[in-house]
Amino acid sequence: MGESDNLSSVKHIIVILSGKGGVGKSTVATQLALALRNEGNKVGLLDVDICGPSIPKMLNLQDKEVFQCSDGWVPVFVDKEQTLGVMSIGFLLHSSSDAIVWRGPKKNAMIKQFLRDVYWRQLDYLIIDTPPGTSDEHLSVVENIRQYNPDGAVLVTTPQAVSTGDVRREATFCKKTGIPVIGLVENMSGFVCPHCSECSNVFSKGGGEALAAQLDVPFLGCIPLDPQLTQSLEDGKNFLDLFPESATRTAVQKVTTAI
Ligand code: ADP
């Protein structure tokens, strides 16, 4: 395969970042991808979380394999209309419990290949889910997308994490590497009761918004902690289609309008 230029036909490139693991970065990435697809866009979702690829399971694609064609790797599509394509290291592992123990250079080479050699065809949005923190892998992502003028990064945090320096470090990383910050999303903010669907604020409200103001980045909204979303992700089911009336779906859609 020669030098590929598969990202040149992608209109919008968005990187999802979080300071810590477990704050819902992959959840936000998958729900944004599905919501953008539901709005009629062609969407690609690239999982470069080399050590913990969770996206195939969340979308019920864990048994799928990727194939190569003369233009590169063909992503796995969620639907037969091919409106949402996914690429993840998870597809290249023999078993979902296989761990990848690679040193930095090998990881970076893999990320480079993921960013160059996946044959997305025409895409309105490419959402890139990254590992937690700001590591070498993030630099590899940035170096390989910079020439395509990415729209920027969406920072994900939780109400518990807003007082820590993690999100601040993400914002600094973006500044140093010249990636615009699209905004901050507060995930798991408030708890949606599975019985009455009412949302209560377990932690104090407004932390994410205040942090966004401090960092001088736009606040994109709050996504509540919703047990039905957890279950849908566990079962690989499409939450947004299953619960069209939910407050969580409204919250996710609100974020897509801001990006
Ligand atoms: P990260 O990518 O930051 O490590 P994940 O997206 O894998 O985090 O989320 C961690 C866990 O929390 C997953 O089991 C996921 O299903 C759950 N989760 C994340 N966000 C929500 C939410 N808003 N409502 C319910 N469960 C959530």
Provide the descriptors you would attach to this structure in a database record:
9-stranded mixed β-sheet; 24% strand; alpha/beta; two-stranded antiparallel sheet; iron; 259 residues; globular; 9 helices; ATP binding
Plain-language structure description:
With 259 residues, the chain is an alpha/beta fold. The protein has a single domain, classed as Rossmann fold. 34% of the residues lie in helices and 24% in strands. The strands form two sheets. Strands 1, 2, 5, 6, 7, 8, 9, 10 and 11 form a nine-stranded mixed β-sheet that branches. Strands 3-4 form a two-stranded antiparallel sheet. α5 (166-177) links the parallel β8 and β9 (181-192). The model has no long low-confidence stretch (mean pLDDT 90). Bound molecules: adenosine-5'-diphosphate. The site of adenosine-5'-diphosphate has 17 residues, from α1, β9, β11 and α7.
Give the termini distance in whole angstroms. 34 Å
Structural class: alpha/beta
State the CATH class.
Alpha Beta
H and E order? EHEHEEEEHEHEHEEHEHHH
Uncertain residue segments = none
CATH fold naming? Rossmann fold
Bin the helical content. 25-40%
Our Rg estimate from Cα atoms comes to 17 Å
Domain count: the total is: 1
CATH architecture type: 3-Layer(aba) Sandwich
Number of H- or I-type helical stretches: 9
Give the amount of beta strand, in percent: 15-25%
Q: CATH superfamily, called what?
A: P-loop containing nucleotide triphosphate hydrolases
Shape, principal axes of CA atoms:
globular
